[in-house]
């Protein structure tokens, strides 16, 4: 199934080309709704605040301070909770109990961290059946299998002949789509979100290739990664790769977190390590070049 029209619809969240993105993530509305917000593992969280946008105003849902504790605002009392993710301690989730249609809309996660100051993430919660299209992604998507702790480099060489205007990298999961990076290649200027992702991508004026770098991957990075490209003529193309990250070995078995149902997850044993000379430098970067 061709998902390009659905994925490229996210290009319209720009108020001006690569100047401002209305949200960083789109999450499917479900009864057990969970919104994620993360800080870098090297940062110390001093406060986190969750808000919902209501027109031009924002209403506070909850605020947490490690010293002062947690305060949940009515009418969200007994409806939401804040927890650390089981996947990583630097991921904080806002969990809804029995969410309904009235919980659709825009949410802001505002972080205060030491020593880097503040950052925020804007999340759109949408009631849409378009997420069901993600379940129909077939096995033709190339897979990159790696272990946690490695550095991953994804490269995509543009197929279109004319000048490229916009390049966006997305992380796609069955319940959520995250905009990772956005670049205006005509100006050579990247869009920088107020939300601090640990990934980065190249953005050079006139470039014919886009490179996404993900350092020190964890099992939570397992997902489909999509590069969306739009030319000055309006021509569009995309490329996808499925990243599968294995966790540490325990008792000879492999622990792996990857895309769950409805997307198929195929367990793979790692291949035999390459035999290399003791004088060779260790390789920590996996590189895929899509021609």
TrEMBL record:
**GO biological process terms, semicolon-separated:** positive regulation of immunoglobulin mediated immune response; positive regulation of natural killer cell cytokine production
UniProt GO molecular function: cell adhesion molecule binding
Q: Where is the signal peptide?
A: 1-18
Would you name any one GO CC term? external side of plasma membrane
Key word Iron present: no
Ig-like domain: residues covered = 5-126
Q: What is the official name of this protein in its record? A: CD226 antigen isoform X4
What organism does the record attribute this protein to?
Dipodomys ordii (Ord's kangaroo rat)
